[in-house]
Amino acid sequence: MSASDCSGVNSYGVEYQEFSCTYKFLEQTYTNAEKYYDPIPVMQWMQSHNTMPILAIIAYGALIVWGREKMEKQEPWKLRASLALWNLALSVFSGIGAFRTAPQLFYNLTNMSLRDNFCADPLQTYGSGSSGLWVQLFVLSKFPELFDTFFIVVNKKRLIFLHWYHHMTVLAYCWHSYVTKSPSGLFFVVMNYAVHAIMYFYYFLMAIRKKPKWLNAIFITTAQLSQMVVGVSITLIAFYFYMKDGQTCHIQKENNIGAFLMYGSYLFLFAQFFVERYFKVKAKASATSPRKKKL
């Protein structure tokens, strides 16, 4: 990478601009390993091992069934300390990821046209260098995130459809988006990193029983629901640019259809969860509470 023009070249020969070196106050916080990161070797490995997410999803589903059967006659493990550390680790990781990818998204939106943000080769716009590293880590983090379900199973908590369906589909979609080089992937990465940083920190506070009274779970669910609304909107914008300029736009039709179906289903399920948890429960509580006597 040239220090003067902030340009770099990955092993595919694709030239990119390392945005961090254009902001001197930010550059000092980046390591050379980040700024010079070449994502191609790992990307090529992922492209030649497309069965990995499928095998992980199958193993994940089988372990859920096996684990719930094993725990049926056992007492909950009550791994509160381990759960707290796990949630804190994911919150810190997601927070760092958000701070590493959000500036790149801001830079792209302010220095490129909207069309290029949705159509340009991601190896040029965000997939190489520092942001490329954290996008790659984001995709790979969907494997360890499956471990969330372990705590639900061994603690004998209620395992809802939304939980395991989300883990399975997001792993498959993120892998496919990465190996097919989805131009709009950075939008999803930044959103997910940011929401997860907040969500897992909330779970950490719950695990150590230090959650402030003002921090209601409805804030977390609202953030998740908002993410799905934005996700659906992004896929619709991507469809527009694909239909308008499909020959030169890097959007892959099948991947964007998958994104629309995934975010659309999440939007429906989170909206359903939101209504059932925060409105039906309140309505039921009001109906069963004793009426106040009239003065």
From TrEMBL:
It is a multi-pass membrane protein. It is an enzyme of class 2 (transferase). The keyword Ribosomal protein does not apply. The chain crosses the membrane at residues 51-67, 79-99, 133-154, 161-179, 185-205, 217-242, 257-275. One of its GO terms (biological process) is fatty acid elongation, monounsaturated fatty acid. InterPro entries: ELO_CS, ELO_fam. It catalyses: an acyl-CoA + malonyl-CoA + H(+) = a 3-oxoacyl-CoA + CO2 + CoA. Keywords: Fatty acid biosynthesis, Fatty acid metabolism, Lipid biosynthesis, Lipid metabolism, Membrane, Transferase, Transmembrane, Transmembrane helix. GO terms for cellular component: endoplasmic reticulum membrane. One of its GO terms (molecular function) is fatty acid elongase activity. It holds the Pfam family ELO. It is found in: Membrane. Its EC number is 2.3.1.-. Belongs to the ELO family. This is Elongation of fatty acids protein.
